[in-house]
Amino acid sequence: MAVYTRVDAEDIEQFLTRYDAGSLVSAKGIAEGVENSNYLLETTTDRFILTLYEKRVNPDDLPFFLGLLDDLVVAGLPVPPAIRDREGRQIQQLAGKTACLIQFLPGVSISHPTPAQAAATGKALARMHLSTADYEPTRQNDMGRPDWHKLARDCGPEGLNAIHAGLAALVDSELEFLDEHWPQNLAISAIHADLFPDNVLMLGDEVTGLIDFYFSCTDFTAYDIAVTHAAWCFSDDGLTFDSRISDALLAGYEAIRVIPEKEREALPVLARGAALRFLLTRAYDWINTPPEAMVTRKDPMAFLNRLSFYQQHPDVFSA
Ligand SMILES: Nc1ncnc2c1ncn2[C@@H]1O[C@H](COP(=O)(O)OP(=O)(O)O)[C@@H](O)[C@H]1O
Ligand SMILES: N[C@@H](CCOP(=O)(O)O)C(=O)O
């Protein structure tokens, strides 16, 4: 459960007085998510998400994230903007943390997506990429390839090998491979960089929300396709690849934005990078999650299994 920071109902009531958002009816900690503390607020007028930003979100990056959300709303994408208070401020302080009141979006996160849902997500991602190509602010990807070396060092060989015998050596050799083969000169745009099924809200086959933009950054557009592919196209444990989901996701994407040949050729390496990125962040969290945190750690092995798949099947993105 991701509630790292507890906030009293009285403090939330007081917080809401800054907004034209009604008064508090109920506040519940949200179990899903691992990064930030989230509460679902019911007020006399509406529902909202109250987010308190934790360790991995630098408050200085919030203008990039919130500006991107505002632009995507204008472009007609189903994303949740941060609500402005009566003085026009989106970014606030609460319980010693930087916090935002976020628009609530309907829909549920899908645990086991169907091809139709994967196709709808591919389309939404491509629509997002067409819009974000023009987003002027930039933010370096701080979970990008150069940072994977530091993450691996921070996990340490003992930490990695305690998760899986020989993992430290596997990570080292993959880092070396990726340093050598990482593509150059692909199209760049603002990307989501974490579009897992739990960050897509759906009603039936319709995407009603793309959420959790707190890893969004400026990077290869195709890397976002690779991340989404790695997140969507496997069983939870990463052992079974679902080609129907993969085909649907890519076909949905290409119904809106054709993947240029150069990007398609780069996808096998980008997908290996995406798998390593989530393997490493999960491994880091596995080793370092404080015992008092009410959060369910995610299994790093699920992304080692995906990495092995991409290593063995470089043809998976061939048209
Ligand atoms: N704007 C929103 N509308 C509806 N539900 C939301 C919204 N934002 C977050 N949630 C809910 O909160 C959960 C955790 O949010 P998320 O942003 O993924 O957290 P974290 O950043 O901690 O991973 C989501 O899975 C979803 O159930
Ligand atoms: N999607 C990442 C972890 C980030 O969590 P999120 O709830 O913010 O998407 C993973 O699955 O490792």
UniProtKB/TrEMBL annotation:
Aminoglycoside phosphotransferase domain residues: 27-257
Transmembrane feature ranges: none
Enzyme class: transferase
Pfam families recorded: APH (PF01636)
First and last residue of the signal peptide: none
Pathway named in the protein's UniProt entry: Amino-acid biosynthesis; L-threonine biosynthesis; L-threonine from L-aspartate: step 4/5
Highest taxon of the lineage: Bacteria
Keyword ATP-binding: yes
InterPro entries cross-referenced by the UniProt entry: Aminoglycoside_PTrfase, Homoserine_kinase_II, Kinase-like_dom_sf, Pseudomonas-type_ThrB
EC number(s) reported in the record: 2.7.1.39
GO biological-process terms attached to the record: threonine biosynthetic process
Keywords associated with the record: Amino-acid biosynthesis, ATP-binding, Kinase, Nucleotide-binding, Threonine biosynthesis, Transferase
Catalytic activity entry: L-homoserine + ATP = O-phospho-L-homoserine + ADP + H(+)
Single GO term (MF): ATP binding
Coiled-coil ranges (or none): none
Family statement: Belongs to the pseudomonas-type ThrB family.
Protein name per UniProt: Homoserine kinase
Organism: Parasphingorhabdus marina DSM 22363
